[in-house]
């Protein structure tokens, strides 16, 4: 249950509203997936999520990347192995603690993130341009409020960046 504003009356989300949000999530995930489709993007969605973390944060430790993605460290190790082999990522060691493995995106990895972001933003623009400016503004305001509700939860940052 959720209390609206200062009202004393509890208001539950209707099944119709819940379904609309489920459909929107599915549609937005489709936009994210289509942004990596095609012969010229040679990474998987999980690999892209790691590259996006590195693009946003710069050089990070493997454990920081795992926390940002909401996955186990062993998962990051496997993703990094594949991205290292394909030339999208560079491994290093922390200068103050050589046992800490660091990850950094290469120029090739950054180019993939830029390309995918451009595709995704292009598709979102085509969709949003079909709304009138007031609808678009209202929708964006609602999405910002939803993001604020999710902020601080276990939602991985890299997932939210896919939906930007």
TrEMBL record:
GO molecular-function terms, A-Z: DNA-binding transcription factor activity
GO aspect biological process, one term: response to stress
InterPro entries to which the protein is assigned, alphabetical: HTH_MarR-typ, MarR/SlyA-like, WH-like_DNA-bd_sf, WH_DNA-bd_sf
Residue ranges constituting the HTH marR-type domain according to the UniProt record: 14-148
SMART domains recorded: HTH_MARR
Domain of life of the native organism: Bacteria
Coiled-coil stretches noted in the UniProt entry, renumbered to this chain: none
UniProt-listed Gene3D superfamilies: Winged helix-like DNA-binding domain superfamily/Winged helix DNA-binding domain
PANTHER family linked to this entry: TRANSCRIPTIONAL REGULATOR, MARR FAMILY, TRANSCRIPTIONAL REGULATORY PROTEIN-RELATED
Listed name of the protein: MarR family transcriptional regulator
Organism this protein belongs to: Rhodococcus opacus M213
